[in-house]
Amino acid sequence: MLDWRRIPLSALVGLACTAGIVLLAVFAPWIAPYGHGEVIGDVWAPMSTTAWLGTDNLGRDLLSRMIYGARVTLTIAGAATTLSFTMGSTLGLVAAVTGGRLDRFLSGTVDLIMAIPTLIMALVVLSVLPATVTVLVVVMGILNSTRIFRLSRAVAVDINAMDFVEAARLRGEKTAWIVFSEILPNALTPLISELGLRFIFAVLFLSALSFLGLGVQPPDADWGAMVKENKDGIVFGVPAALVPAAAIGVLTISVNLVADWILNRTSSLKGDRGNS
C-alpha cells in the first residue's frame, strides 16, 4: 500500500499541480465562469471581479480560456503520447525479439525519420494536410514514437539475451507471448519514465506548433495558441500572454516531478525484490 508520508515533497507538489490541472480540464464547462469564446469586456482589460485574470486580445475572459485551453492541451498531448508510446514500444520490442530483416527495416525507417528535425518535419507535413485534431494527433504521435522505439528496442535487446527468455523460446512460446509476458514487464521502469518525458515533449511540441499557426485552430485554442494570440500585448505591459506560458511551465515541471518519483520508486522496489 502507498504510504503518503514517505512521498517526497517535490512529488507531492507535482501530484497536486498535475491533479489540479486535470480536474480543471475535466470539469471545464462547470468551472469556467464564461464560455470559451464569449466576449465580456474590452480588449486586454485588467484583472477585476468579473474577469479574475483580465481579458484577451478579443475581450474574452482569460480565466475561462485558460480552463478550456487546459482541456485541449491535455487531450491532444495525452492522445499523441498514448499513440506514440503504444506504437513505439510495440514495434521496438518486436524488432528486438524478431531481429533480421524486420529489425533492420524498422530501425532504418526510424533513423530516416529522426535524421530530419522533428519540428521541421511536422511543419512540412501539417502545411499540406487538413488542419484537424486527428491529423495533429497522428503526426505528433508518429514523430514522437521514434524516440520510444529506440529506447524500447535497446532495453529489449538486453532482456532478450537473458536465460528466462531463451527458456520461453525452448518451451515453444510465440513471439507475441515473449514480448508481452517476458520482456515488457521487465522493461516497464525505463518506459514509464520515458512516458512522462514524452508527454512533456508533446505539450511543448503542441504549444510550438500552435504558436506557429499549425496547431489547434480557432475558435478552439490550447495554451500555445493563447500565447500567440496575446503576444502583442507584452509590448504594452499586458500579461495575457505570460499566463498561458506560465501554465505550460507549471504543467511540464509537475509531470516531470511525478515521473522522476515513479522512476525512483519502481527502481527501489526492484532493488528490494532483488535483495530479498
Largest sheet: none
**Helical proportion?**
over 70%
Q: Per DSSP, what share of the residues sits in E-state strands of 2 or more residues?
A: under 5%
The number of domains: 1
- Structure class: mainly alpha
The geometry reads as: elongated
CA radius of gyration is: 22 Å
CATH class: Mainly Alpha
CATH-derived architecture: Orthogonal Bundle
Query: What is the end-to-end distance?
Result: 18 Å
Spans where pLDDT lies below 50 across 5 or more residues: 271-276
What value does the average pLDDT take? 87
Structure description:
The chain has one domain (13-43, 51-232, 239-245, 262-271): MetI-like fold (Orthogonal Bundle), CATH 1.10.3720. The protein starts with 8 loop residues before the first helix and ends with a helix. The chain is mainly α and 276 residues long. It has 10 helices and no strands. Helix 5 runs antiparallel to helix 6 and helix 8 packs parallel to helix 9 (223-230). The longest helix has 37 residues, at 62-98. The radius of gyration is 22 Å and the shape is elongated. Residues 271-276 have low confidence and may be disordered. The chain has helices at 9-26, 28-31, 62-98, 100-114, 118-128, 133-160, 163-170, 175-211, 223-230, 242-275.
